[in-house]
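Notes from the 1:1 (GR / supervisor)

We went over the backlog. Supervisor wanted to see one worked example end to end before approving the batch request, so GR pasted a single chain during the call. The sequence is below; no edits were made to it. Supervisor asked that the structure be written out right there so they could see what the output format looks like.
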Amino acid sequence: MALLDLDHFKRLNDLHGHEVGDRALRHFAQVLEGCARASDVLVRWGGEEFLWVCPNTPLSEAGSLFARLQTGLREAPLELRGGPVQITVSAGFSVFPLGGPAPEDWALTLRVADAALYRAKRAGRDRWEGMAGAEAAEEAPLDRPAWADTSVDTLEAMGLLQETRPGA
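Structure output shown during the call:
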């Protein structure tokens, strides 16, 4: 599962107006749909965020999925009267279930993907980060109810999540 967020969307809205911002969202959705597979599910999650659910896909394929999206966006910039505008996106990937004896907890998986998305933004945008359950989760499953509200950073520090970086 991936949470995608258009980079610098507020700047695009402020510079070109909300009508162009709306066109940018529709344009991005078309490019994303062209990159998705028949089994994938695409949802506008809110604002300029999209959810991309990729069933039966390991986290190891996140890089190739994201590269396909980046290529699609580069090859099809948003065409405006003043010339083309390049749209970039950042992504946070997670897997469902998170691994080990973790529960099938969609909310936790989304929270992990969201944390990975923010890491991608902090690392420079137009990139992806991913997180999955760590091997340590085998001994300390992520299904403890008390962990439902535990921060992703804390779960990672406890050895229950591990980060996956592009090129790793």
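Supervisor's comment: The chain has one domain: 2-164.
Batch request approved.
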